[in-house]
Amino acid sequence: MNISPKTEDFIQYHLQQNTPICELLLRKSCFPEIDVPFAVQQIEGRKRAKEKLPTFFQTSQIVYPPKLALEQCSSEKTAFLKANLLEKGNILIDLTGGFGVDSYAFAHRFKKVIYLEKKAELAHIAENNFQKLGAHNVCVINQDCEKWLSNTPNLEVDVVYIDPSRRNALFQKIISLQDCEPNVIRLLPQLQKISKRILLKASPMFDIQKGLQELPNVEQVSVVSVENECKELLFLTNNRKDSHSVVVNVFVYQNQQWDSFSACWDHIHQAFSQMNLSMPQRYLYEPDAAYIKTRTYALRYQATHALLHLNSVLLTNSVLDTTFIGRKFEIQKIMTLRQLQQEKIPKANITTRNFPMNVAQIRAKTQIAEGGDIYLFATTLLDEQKVFLMCQKV
Fold first, then answer.
1. Tens of pLDDT along 16-56?
2. Is the peptide bond before 287 cis (omega within 30 degrees of 0)?
3. CATH code, 76-106+140-244
4. Which tens digit of pLDDT belongs to each residue from 120-178?
5. What are phi and psi of 193, to 5 degrees?
């Protein structure tokens, strides 16, 4: 699967000219020697890959899949982080290979990676790309993973990785493990027979506690966020583990660098129940999305920060913590809704945390437009008063 020189020239020219995609598709009859829909797919893919998949972008003759597959694949940085969670080994199976970014990363940790993908187009594209990337230890199999597992007896591998599809037939997002394709819960007993460890990627919105209840022998839970957006929720199971303790890993990528924090799941909940509560002090802190997801902010910042309310994630203190992982603000004013309406602020960035109104309702009542340098946090204080904290970012 090589991109012809004429097609490559077409792609490069229209990338440089930033030609609108719709214009190219409307004028495709003007380019009889070019498969314009394919070329457009490559143009869109390269634009997205430049930041998301830099190694792919810098490698010639990489073929990109349809837009949805590229949107759903891991970024290169999160794929390699995921691979590094695992000990080096002999064989890993990627049951839901997709575009193959995760398999490519796993190929740097395992002597052999078995990539399974039921969609022929994706499997064909991935096979081409593995060769171009030099990942010759990846074996591509174009088959439904459940059928392949049933027809492959006496299989034994180090790790099974599964990233099930989280969209239904109507392309609506789904969260439950049972509703994913394949059905993870139904497949688990079969997977445990062939591998000691299973690495499962769940929806970032999936509840961690529910995962610990539904998945047997969870050893680690890892949450990955990039620029304050939760990107991946990973469960690593070990059917030979001796202890019942679960380690929670938080990985945060911001300002071109990674921050990490690990803690025992039970210790996190103990720390949360022991957090100090306080009325707003000089500074306000909103933890990064991964810390909110895992509640690990309670353990990391227990000694230096206080919670505004037991049902809130907002922290406060009197001395600026420049190392805080998340957003940092200096509180300018504390107002009720009536006082906020009288303030007549033209525009502000509004966030609600533990508050009975949503952002749209607040904007309707205050006529405050979106944007500007003012940050408003609608929240509930420890005395149950509903207030607005007007802040400046620091």
1. 999 999 999 999 889 999 999 999 999 999 999 999 999 99
2. no
3. 3.40.50.150
4. 999 999 999 999 999 999 999 999 999 999 999 889 999 999 999 877 766 677 788 88
5. -75, -25
The structure tokens listed for 321 are 């913590």
Q: Where are the domains of the chain?
A: 76-106+140-244, 276-393
- Residue 379 has phi, psi (to 5 degrees) of -155, 175
Sequence-ordered list of residues with C-beta below 8 angstroms from that of 217, at least 6 positions apart, any chain = 237, 238, 239, 240, 241
